[in-house]
Amino acid sequence: MNSISLCMIVRNEEAVIERCLQSVSDLVDEIVIVDTGSTDQTKMICSKYTEKLFDFEWVDDFAAARNYAFAQANCDYILWLDADDVVREEDQQRFQKLRQTLNTEIDAVSMIYHLAFDLDKHATSSLRRYRLVKREKGFKWIGAVHEYLAVNGNLYDSEIAICHMPLSHDADRNIRIYERMLDEKIDFTPRDLFYYANELVDHGQAEKAIEYYMQFLLTKNGWLEDNLRACHKLADCYHQLGKTEEAIGAVLHALTYTTPRPESCCRLGFSFMEKGDFQSAAYWYEQALANIDDPSAPFYNPSFSTWLPLLQLAVCYDRLGDTEKANKYNDRGLTFRPHDERLLANQRYFKELLKPKEV
């Protein structure tokens, strides 16, 4: 069976690090912790799980820290996690099975990364990341911030999921790094342009974010999924600034990259709802249901092809006077979100409308 090193970089993670290590310590043969300057109890907690604790001077470069951590590993494969990640019990079992069956010809294994959850603890936003890599391949991390692991060779997509469950977040850290890069006149890659624009959005700078999303798209070197996300985020920025036509134009631009994605369809549906054109809105929401995203896609948000268009179709057909059709869509929505107050309120509303009239 292949041996596995867990490599992590940490800093002031006392609130979450033990939860993470408890969920994964039985799955690996070695744990490597690289601390970038903790001032809390993080290192003491980690010492209960490993003696391989290293200090690394923080230089505003995540890739540098991760590459240093990888260099300390000694096992056949390297697994990486963040301190606020958790491997749930069912995924621990999947991981153990993978260990026992993994073909040594495989160079890198991707896993699902759940980023957000609804009230029923179902994932509402997921993506894939390469989590387990063969050490002898010497794969490197790239990027000072929003870094990525550059892999190649024989790749395998697993069904193992990692859950991102943060309790807090340094909201200014990433934008500080990008702005230092700008001050030092460091050239931005297309990826940097995209992620800097995202940080600007998160900091309420919509107009400046538009500038960098446009720069990113004009490079024509962006990854397809990032191109689509940039279009949708552009639409949000324009909408925030009250520029409705520009917002619709940004969504339409997403259609130039590939077949209509459910999110694009839902956005177009909403634009027609705002105009009171419920027939056209219904058309686009029905397209969202028809153009279902592949659950194994790099980015996956099931909301745009399940309960959200169903909820909106219930509203559209109610406005169009087709109560029975509206009720059917609403009932379908409840199969995905049985506790959603909007859908439950609609259910009561339609039940009253469809109640047989007394003679």
TrEMBL record:
Q: Which residues form the Glycosyltransferase 2-like domain?
A: 5-125
Q: Which Pfam families match?
A: Glycos_transf_2, TPR_6, TPR_8
Report whether Ribosomal protein shows up as a keyword of the record.
no
Q: Which UniProt keywords apply?
A: Transferase
The family database entries (SUPFAM superfamilies) matched by this protein are listed as: Nucleotide-diphospho-sugar transferases, TPR-like
* GO MF term set: transferase activity
Q: Does the keyword Transferase apply?
A: yes
Listed name of the protein: Glycosyltransferase
Q: Which organism is it from?
A: Bacillus mesophilum
Classification of source organism: Bacteria, Bacillati, Bacillota, Bacilli, Bacillales
